[in-house]
């Protein structure tokens, strides 16, 4: 860490320390002016607005590892060594005039590829156990790992952000709500090396034990592409449960997968009440994928008999051109995925086998090319109640009442 970086980091730390005295007096605002601000990780505080000028660039450090003992670095990485971090916070706004936060992830990616890291890479923004979070009107570049990661959070808004990383960068997810509720993601452009949005809720026996689900999540007006991930991924860490997810007006292009649910024996938990509509795909390898073999486990203590419950998944109003495979819908033997509904889907598919299905049950209507046998039973008129509808979501999730907390920002 050179003298300039030490000075910049100290400046940010001093500013946050000073502003903390205003936390109980109506809040405070930290304005980052035009310029390039090279800094290591710094902690946010409650009742803070961090505002970046349109020509301001916060640069995350990739040199801190050289300045700390290995054990201390390892502990610090667990706590978050990205550009911004916070825990147990209330009322935090990270915004501006499309300023930039750059994680400078290339060094971390190279360490990962060379298998020289003995600890995890940092997220660019990680917020834990916090509520009332708004992230908006900014550009995020080159995260070492996941870009925006709210974990154990409530009332989170991410809107009008651009997230970019090279298409070959490892694990550079865009936005990963993790064991969080009341999350709204809208009007975002994401192009990264992995999932654009990945919804998670805990890993195997630890997620089952902690039992903090991700629920009431809205995604709308999302555009993006990837080569090694998905547009919207649910899982694979879903052991605490994921439900009440509503996504609409999505456009994915030149991508590996559009929509995926990832799970495996040993996960336990559930994914239920998912509604995805108004999707446009161009140049996507696989439109819809249920992957029941996401079988990486944290250790040997997981229960292989802990089977996930996957049910009431509706995907409707989808059009796609230059699609290789329409659907790989693979449930688990002795654990059928139930009430899968495909409605009004039209895909121009290049594969001679557009659908591959097993251990699933559901219904379909107006699907081209013709769907697989387990889904050929018509949804109309007898089985419409088995599909998860938008009206169900509005009633069960309180979506219509969300205006109060959305407008409050």
From TrEMBL:
GO terms (BP aspect): carbohydrate metabolic process
Keywords: Glycosidase, Hydrolase
Domain of life of the source: Eukaryota
InterPro entries for the chain: GH28_Enzymes, Glyco_hydro_28, PbH1, Pectin_lyas_fold, Pectin_lyase_fold/virulence
Pfam families named among the record's database cross-references: Glyco_hydro_28
SMART domains given in the database record: PbH1 (SM00710)
Similarity field: Belongs to the glycosyl hydrolase 28 family.
Name of this chain's protein: Detected protein of confused Function
């Amino acid at each position: 860490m050179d003298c300039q970086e030490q000075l910049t980091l100290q400046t940010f730390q001093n500013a946050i320390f000073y502003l903390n005295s205003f936390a109980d007096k109506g809040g405070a605002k930290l304005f980052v002016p035009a310029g390039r601000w090279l800094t290591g990780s710094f902690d946010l505080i409650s009742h803070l607005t961090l505002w970046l000028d349109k020509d301001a660039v916060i640069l995350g450090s990739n040199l801190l590892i050289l300045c700390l003992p290995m054990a201390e670095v390892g502990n610090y990485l667990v706590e978050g060594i990205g550009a911004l971090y916070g825990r147990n916070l209330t009322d935090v706004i990270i915004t501006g005039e499309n300023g930039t936060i750059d994680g400078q992830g290339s060094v971390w990616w190279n360490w990962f590829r060379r298998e020289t890291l003995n600890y995890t890479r940092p997220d660019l923004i990680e917020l834990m156990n916090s509520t009332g979070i708004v992230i908006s009107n900014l550009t995020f570049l080159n995260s070492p790992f996941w870009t925006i990661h709210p974990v154990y959070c409530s009332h989170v808004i991410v809107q009008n952000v651009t997230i970019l990383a090279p298409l070959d960068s490892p694990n550079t997810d865009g936005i990963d709500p993790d064991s969080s509720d009341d999350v709204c993601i809208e009007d975002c452009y994401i192009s990264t090396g992995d999932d654009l949005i990945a919804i998670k809720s805990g890993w195997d026996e630890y997620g089952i034990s902690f039992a903090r689900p991700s629920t009431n999540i809205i995604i709308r007006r999302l555009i993006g592409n990837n080569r090694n991930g998905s547009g919207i991924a649910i899982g694979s860490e879903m052991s605490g449960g994921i439900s009440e997810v509503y996504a609409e007006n999505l456009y994915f292009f030149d991508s590996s997968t559009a929509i995926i649910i990832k799970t495996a024996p040993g996960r336990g938990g559930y994914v239920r009440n998912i509604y995805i509509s108004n999707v446009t795909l161009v140049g996507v390898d696989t439109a819809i994928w249920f992957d029941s073999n996401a079988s990486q486990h944290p250790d040997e203590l997981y229960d292989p008999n802990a089977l996930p419950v996957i049910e009431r998944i509706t995907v409707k109003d989808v059009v796609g051109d230059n699609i290789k495979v329409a659907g790989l819908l693979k449930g688990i033997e002795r654990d059928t995925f139930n009430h899968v509904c495909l409605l009004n889907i039209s895909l121009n598919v290049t594969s001679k086998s557009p659908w591959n299905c097993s251990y699933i049950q559901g219904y379909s209507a107006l699907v081209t090319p013709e769907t697989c046998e387990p889904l050929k039973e018509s949804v109309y008129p007898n089985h419409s109640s088995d599909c998860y509808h938008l009206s169900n979501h509005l009633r069960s999730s309180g979506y219509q009442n969300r205006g109060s907390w959305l407008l409050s920002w």
